[in-house]
Amino acid sequence: MLSLITRGDYSVMRRANNWFAPRWVRAYVISSTRGGDGWLWYAMGLAILLFGGEHRFEALGAAGISAALSVLLFLCLKRLAGRPRPCQIEPHCWATLLPPDKFSFPSGHTMTAFAVTTPLALIYADLTAGLLFCAISVAVSRILLGMHFLSDVIAGALIGAGVGYFGYIAFQL
Q: In terms of pLDDT, which residue wins out, 75 or 17?
């Protein structure tokens, strides 16, 4: 099973690293990744604080604890896994961003995106589509920029959603 996942990861990596994407795609994935650096989540937090209604503090608490747990968890998991990034294995044809660290598994950007998205979507159901769009955009950007393998972002999304659900449960009134 692991060899099947690795073959798939390398196939997607080669396609992503050798695809000279149109300018709009490049701008989109770079801005998605930069938003996933934290700016998007800080802006959402401010918007929720200002316009989040009676559940704003519950939402901010759940999203905040989920993000913090996600960061701590992915830092530990990356060191344990020690998997190199795709951009270290094969050069990318246009992406020049430097990775935040040397390890690939799991995707920290994706974990945090889904860790924040999950409690917010559970509290503000009307925002689910927009929140998922943002989280998926961050995840896809990490693959297209050569920062992560497909399995890194899938694992990051699943773990992040689990952490986010835990954060949501922790802040239920």
A: 75
pLDDT digits (tens, 9 = 90+) for 67-124: 999 999 999 999 998 888 888 887 776 677 777 778 889 999 999 999 999 999 999 9
> For 58, phi and psi rounded to 5 degrees?
-60, -45
Which pLDDT score is estimated for 168? 95
* Residue 24: burial class (beta carbons within 10 Å; 0-12, 13-18, 19+): exposed
pTM for the structure as a whole: 0.90
CA distance 167 to 68: 10
DSSP code per residue over the chain: -HHHHHHHHHHHHHHHHH----HHHHHHHHHHHHIIIIIHHHHHHHHHHHH-GGGHHHHHHHHHHHHHHHHHHHHHHHHHH-PBPHHHHS--SS--PPPSSSB-SS-HHHHHHHHHHHHHHHH-GGGHHHHHHHHHHHHHHHHHTTS--HHHHHHHHHHHHHHHHHHHHHT--
Residue 173 has pLDDT above 70, yes or no: no
